[in-house]
Structures are given as structure tokens and as C-alpha cells.
Amino acid sequence: MASVEVMTACENICRDFWWITVVDPRIWQGLLTVVAAGIASVTALHIAKSVYSEQKKIDRRIQKEHERREIYRGFWEVTNRHFSVVHQASIVKDLDGINESHLELISRASGIVLYAEVEISNNVLEVCRKYYQRLLEYETYVKAECGDEASTSFLKKNPERYEGKPFEKVKLERKRVLLALRRDLGDSVEKAEQAAEAYFVYTAREEVE
User: What pLDDT digit, counting tens, does each position of 50-69 carry?
Assistant: First the structure.
């Protein structure tokens, strides 16, 4: 019986890949460089996509916060302006400018519904809605006092909505809105209260109303 040559695994590899030993090392170096560059490119692309996606989320959040601040500022300014116009009308008994202010109020205040938060701890949308409602009720009350027939008729049909002092009711909701807006923009309850106390300095005329 002829002797059988035993071939190890190492010998198998050497036989199958003998060509590796004759390839110029510079070619291997070039190939490894290309492979490394490819891996680096794929890795960089993956990281770039992840970073871009995350940055887009951050940018959208920042943009939304900016838009919300603008909407809140607009709501506060237009409601304050209308409050001043209506209150002035109640003093001088002249409705000049009140209808124009009313239209501006309806136009600019509507944006609040798109951004105001609805949370149990600080329901900004509900607080703004109540202030808006009280402000319109105060307007109707003042117009009726100034002799506007439509407003007088509405008051007579809905007396329960105008019990008490509409001026005091709207002032209360006005303060609540300021507190809610500042808290939603990041203030603590204490800081929001301090801001309200600093802002609401009543005149002698307001105190006797």
C-alpha cells in the first residue's frame, strides 16, 4: 500500500492562496487604503445622516418655540390694546375706534389656538379662551352703556352672562393669562407672580371702578 501524504489545513491554504505571496506589497497597501477609505466614508455618511436628522429635530423645536413666543406676544399685545380701547370708551362714553380694535382682536388672537399648550397643570389655551370671552363680554357691556342698541338687546337676552362687574372679571382673567403665558415660556410660578405684580399697577381710576 502506497504511503498517503497527510495534508494539513495550513498546507491547504498555502496551496489555494499561493498567489498572495507573489503580489507586490505595494498593491496590497493600495487595496487596504481603498478599503479603509471606503469604510471611513460609509461610517462618516451614517454619522452625518444621524446628526443631520437630530439637528433638524432641534431646529424644528427651536423654530416652534420662536413662533410660539411670537404668537403669545401678539395675543398679549392685541388683547391689551383692546382692553385699553374698551376701558377708555367706558370712561369717555365714546365708541370711536372700538369696532376697528374688535376686528384686529379677532384677526390676531386666533393664532393662539395653534400654539397654546393644553396641560392639566397649566392649560394655556383654556386660560386664553376665558380671557378672550371676558374681554368680549366687557366690550358688549360697555357698548350697551354707551347706547349701542344691538349690545343692549344682547344684554337683556343674556343677563346671567353679565352679573357682577364685567370690568373686575376681565381684569382677573387678564392676570391669569399673563401668569399662564410666562409659565409656559419657562418661568416658575414665583417668577410669573413677580412679573404680574410688577406689571399690574392700577391707576386711581381703575381702583374706583
Answer: 776 777 777 777 888 888 88
Number of structural domains (the chain) is: 1
Query: What CA–CA distance (Å, rounded) separates 75 from 170?
Result: 15
User: pTM (2 decimals)?
Assistant: 0.69
Continuous segment of H or E residues that includes residue 149: helix 149-157
Q: Can you give the residue range of the structural domain that contains 142?
A: 38-208
Rounded Cα gap, residues 113 and 21, in angstroms: 75
Residue 110 placed within a domain: yes
Query: Does residue 174 form part of some domain?
Result: yes
Q: List b or e across 81-111, with b for residues whose CB sees 16 or more CB atoms inside 10 angstroms.
A: ebbebbbebbeeeebeebeebbeebeebbeb
Taking 50 as the pLDDT cut, the residues of the chain under it are 1-4, 203-209
